[in-house]
């Protein structure tokens, strides 16, 4: 595998784009050796789903698009970034028992920690933000052996 792989897509801030973001990421990961349905791909699918949903729902119409970036460095680290043009950073909401939404960042933080990864939120030069999840990546030792994935998953 290459030392550095990248994939990126920009989508409209529309609820239908969440599905497109998941499909894009699963396709890229499949090309990089992580089969659909594996624990690793399901973890990334859920993280991207939550980040994309946040980019659509919580930018209050102030971000017409959002971008999903994937970077795989030296078969060691997978970086998942979602960028929108809204300046407000995600907030940790109090968890109410009857609450139907607002748990996306809690889910992302939990999955990231479970995999031994890191979560970062940074402002962009244009005034928006990028939420990045960095996960350790375990590549297969030989073709036909165990699929790549994430430690602890």
UniProtKB/TrEMBL annotation:
InterPro entries from the UniProt entry: Anti-sigma-factor_SerPK, HATPase_C_sf, HATPase_dom
Domain of life: Bacteria
Domain Histidine kinase/HSP90-like ATPase as annotated: residue spans: 11-133
Transmembrane intervals: none
Entry's Gene Ontology molecular function annotations: ATP binding
Gene3D superfamilies: Histidine kinase-like ATPase, C-terminal domain
Protein keywords: ATP-binding, Kinase, Nucleotide-binding, Serine/threonine-protein kinase, Transferase
Name of the molecule in the record: ATP-binding protein
Organism taxonomic ancestry: Bacteria, Bacillati, Actinomycetota, Actinomycetes, Kitasatosporales
């Amino acid at each position: 595998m290459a030392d550095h792989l990248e994939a990126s897509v920009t989508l409209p801030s529309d609820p239908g784009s969440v599905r497109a973001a998941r499909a894009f990421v699963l396709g890229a990961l499949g090309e990089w050796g992580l089969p659909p349905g594996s624990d690793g791909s399901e973890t990334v699918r859920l993280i991207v789903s939550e980040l994309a949903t946040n980019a659509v729902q919580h930018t209050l119409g102030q971000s017409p698009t959002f971008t999903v970036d994937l970077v795989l460095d030296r078969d060691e680290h997978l970086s998942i970034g979602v960028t929108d043009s809204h300046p407000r950073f995600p907030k940790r909401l109090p968890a109410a028992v009857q609450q139907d939404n607002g748990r996306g960042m809690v889910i992302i933080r939990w999955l990231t920690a479970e995999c031994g990864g890191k979560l970062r939120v940074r402002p962009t030069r244009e005034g928006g933000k990028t939420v990045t999840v960095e996960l350790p990546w375990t590549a297969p030792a030989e073709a036909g052996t165990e699929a790549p994935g994430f430690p602890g998953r």
